[in-house]
Amino acid sequence: MAFLLRPETMNGGTASNGLHLNGQDSLVQPLLTDFYQISMTYSYWRSQIHNEPAVFDLFFRKNPFQGEFTIFAGLEDCLRFVENFKFSVSDIDFLRTLLPGVEEDFFEYLKEMDCSAVTIHAITEGSVVFPKVPLLSVSGPLAICQLLETTLLNLVNYSSLVATNAARFRLAAGPKTNLLEFGLRRAQGPNGGLAASKYCYIGGFDGTSNVLAGKLFGIPVKGTQAHSFICSFSAEKDLRVREFKTKDGKMIDLYALAMKKRDDIMDKLFWGVSSSEVSEGELCAFVAYAIAFPNGFLALIDTYDVLRSGVLNFIAVCLALSECGYRPIGCRIDSGDLSYLSKEIRARLRNVAELDESLSWLAKVTIVASNDINEETIISLNEQKHEIDSFGVGTHLVTCQKQPALGCVYKLVAIANEAKIKLSQEVAKISIPGRKMCYRIYGRSGSSILDILLLHDEKPPEAGHQILCRHPFEESKRALVLPSRVEPLHKLFWGDGKIQYDLPTLADIRTHVRVELDRLRNDHKRQLNPTPYKVSVSERLYNFLHSIWLQNAPIGQLD
Amino acid sequence: MAFLLRPETMNGGTASNGLHLNGQDSLVQPLLTDFYQISMTYSYWRSQIHNEPAVFDLFFRKNPFQGEFTIFAGLEDCLRFVENFKFSVSDIDFLRTLLPGVEEDFFEYLKEMDCSAVTIHAITEGSVVFPKVPLLSVSGPLAICQLLETTLLNLVNYSSLVATNAARFRLAAGPKTNLLEFGLRRAQGPNGGLAASKYCYIGGFDGTSNVLAGKLFGIPVKGTQAHSFICSFSAEKDLRVREFKTKDGKMIDLYALAMKKRDDIMDKLFWGVSSSEVSEGELCAFVAYAIAFPNGFLALIDTYDVLRSGVLNFIAVCLALSECGYRPIGCRIDSGDLSYLSKEIRARLRNVAELDESLSWLAKVTIVASNDINEETIISLNEQKHEIDSFGVGTHLVTCQKQPALGCVYKLVAIANEAKIKLSQEVAKISIPGRKMCYRIYGRSGSSILDILLLHDEKPPEAGHQILCRHPFEESKRALVLPSRVEPLHKLFWGDGKIQYDLPTLADIRTHVRVELDRLRNDHKRQLNPTPYKVSVSERLYNFLHSIWLQNAPIGQLD
């Protein structure tokens, strides 16, 4: 079992900081990088510029999903990586095979390398963030900062993307609908699945089907049964255990009771169904499940026919359980027209509830829907006034089908105290040079108005003091803003060789996401044609940027 | 460092079976599953049907990427999972918290559970496969087989999807073009990145930038430098080391030599470039890299302007290196019109090569292209007769942007020797009941004609004996086929509690993919409107399927 590394030893059982990365991080190590980081490091070292002080910014250029906001996630993973950054002996041996002819002293240099000379300013995990603003600003010796690039990008890119996706589902579904992540089977392997569970929870999901995510991160775990369970019962003969202990300790035959309840309903309420249409096996499966989980009865009702079989068997078992003193939870549908079916199911539940005052709870049991649900499906279902209480979402959520990559980049913005710019024919791809700080400006309404980038040695904006905010690239776009409140976005998270904060729990980060989204104006959040949020620069940074740009842009020559 | 589980202890250094799963598999364990598998298992156990003999098929319903073939991958991961399937003490403790009120004997049952009673027939990893054909057929006690579902799906889904994607890139690029996987920074976390590297290699890529994938799986590792490296040098003053040892041991100033070469070329060949346009910093960066890697010089030439700066500096350093006895490798472009630029670069290389016979090698150095490359880009570049020798592909490859999930399913097809069918309003979603075997029928040309599913106890088709092949759902579609060769697709991979084969190495699987694709007719492989490959059933299976279907389909009733 050597290869089966189990997180046993480190698992206390609930989500806490030490736990977030258990197991998952067996792979987060210096070699989880692109080879060119290593070959560049050698060139820096060989050129004796490896220790030049450098600053790299990690940022993205465009919000995902045609939206106008992003949730920043993955910071703790980045900090843990930096904290533990160390090449092992076998890493060095392997690198030697990749780099024949390289001077041996270089490997000695790698062996000694750690991140004690690195400083990381970052935005708090779970914050709402926007294009061009550095999520992380990494400074320190050129070669070490360069070596962190790929791993940091890997840790931020997908985490932020899927957290943003989850937040969009949450906005679409509204605050009350239960959202469950069911994506493990469609994720990019085991860790892709775990990362999805973790960051969807941060983004606003209520639970996951992924048991290991529950164990490692303390995320609520949910789930009931699959079609294969229902299909495992064909007829009464397959139901070997029918005896059932009621809440007050009497033994009864739950199957017989459910059959009686079903006959009752079919007598009393005419739903156009003949008893030959109602599946025998399905009722047996429901009874078996109810016997196992009398307090957790949630039945999958679409294996045969939702309205001509599933809902009848479901109600029958609900009534039987209720008579035995238990309260059923609800039902799930995984196919068909989810809005129509949910309304038809609710109508039937209400029909039965109206038969007797003591059955009023039945009208309110949970209806869970799954099957290829995406953000648009939820919005469309809302318009159709569905009766769904809970969505189970898999593929579209975890694969981020609409845009499967965020596209964060990591750009050198200063070296040896000289600002650097990455030029490009596309203005959108030009990076903002120099070491910067970012502030979020809030208006009188309490909503954020814009973010402003300043050079790191500029005086921060202050509440009550007007500030000129400029578009970084369009000269004529500028505005005077009077902040009611100024929030510095960048904090020192890594310095002096250690993490500078008690990192928040997953639940804290999840709450932070909700608070942050609440503070963002609705027009930035809406699904259709949202308003872009402004990211501006100070007058000084504007002038600095444009002077560096001109210094670096070659003067073309026309024939 | 407790959480940083390193695969140190198990790593011999090269790819071999034991190694494939190192580290990566810290997460592949029984709890990496959907919770409903556990709750269903309890219900089966509580109903005393947990030991009923069951058969589950793992298959997909539609080829990905609008194509007509799929590469099956992930089998070894599945077998290792099954081999090591065991709940730990802390797993059981955690499940106890999720399942209050569950009988304690159930946990004893879980504790003892392993896969020794499970049998897995599967198709060889790396085979070309088609919809509806079981990739794995898992038989054994109902509850255990049920518990394997999610993890097996997770291990097969993404692996097969990305291997198929890689194979499609390979088909588009042709057999000679070098394909490199650069996707780590855009993958679903660390393990998503590693899985991508591994299965892209299987699918036909030549190497990866992911160093850890090189260490763990023995995949060739490639890469050179990023824009940040080029930007780290602004002017001559930044080049602290210029001395360079020629192949025959003389010390020279490589920068001075490269400058001289550049002036020479600019004198001799008029490319409409003035020397003010050629970046000084870029030349310094190239010289620094060449000093570090005289035998591995591959320069990124698009930081400033490919044709007015990069290519000139590149050629200058190539000529200088060559004069010192070294042979440069090539250059990389990461932006712009890749076809146009590659042709212009090649033309300039040829211009210079024509100046002197001893420079003929220069015309043939490698041109690498990267930047948002997908299958269509490659096809379009081919039509434009590009001059690219090697593609670096990231985002589109690893995220499978065109279709980020394969959609494998795991369906119960028999229980207690009774065949089961999963009905659906959509015919495409109906599963084929019963335990089956699949054979691939080859025609006289050596290409495969079709696959045929038979009931497991039917006599296999034989070469030279005509067989009737039927469409599973369309009565009128049937054909008599005379096989030249018959290949049984399903082999027993897991039985008697152990893996039944010496599993192939990654390189073997990669070769198998190539051979399999060669045997598939071109019309199934082409990118535009490919011909669907036929998956048929035997006469007996056809009749069996339709009788079970009728038995199970409810008789509707019209008002």
TrEMBL record, chains A, B:
Transiently phosphorylated on a His residue during the reaction cycle. Phosphorylation strongly increases the affinity for substrates and increases the rate of nicotinate D-ribonucleotide production. Dephosphorylation regenerates the low-affinity form of the enzyme, leading to product release. The lineage of its organism: Eukaryota, Metazoa, Ecdysozoa, Nematoda, Chromadorea. It catalyses: 5-phospho-alpha-D-ribose 1-diphosphate + nicotinate + ATP + H2O = nicotinate beta-D-ribonucleotide + ADP + phosphate + diphosphate. Pathway: Cofactor biosynthesis; NAD(+) biosynthesis; nicotinate D-ribonucleotide from nicotinate: step 1/1. Belongs to the NAPRTase family. It comes from Mesorhabditis belari. Keywords: Ligase, Magnesium, Manganese, Metal-binding, Phosphoprotein, Pyridine nucleotide biosynthesis, Transferase. Residues 31-157 form the Nicotinate phosphoribosyltransferase N-terminal domain. Pfam families: NAPRTase, NAPRTase_C, NAPRTase_N. Catalyzes the first step in the biosynthesis of NAD from nicotinic acid, the ATP-dependent synthesis of beta-nicotinate D-ribonucleotide from nicotinate and 5-phospho-D-ribose 1-phosphate. Helps prevent cellular oxidative stress via its role in NAD biosynthesis. Its EC number is 6.3.4.21. InterPro entries: Aldolase_TIM, N/Namide_PRibTrfase, NAPRTase_C, NAPRTase_N, Nic_PRibTrfase-Fam, Nic_PRibTrfase_pncB, Nicotinate_pribotase-like_C. Residues 330-421 form the Nicotinate/nicotinamide phosphoribosyltransferase domain. This is Nicotinate phosphoribosyltransferase. One of its GO terms (cellular component) is cytosol. Residues 435-544 form the Nicotinate phosphoribosyltransferase C-terminal domain. Its cofactor is Mn(2+); Mg(2+). GO terms for biological process: NAD+ biosynthetic process via the salvage pathway.
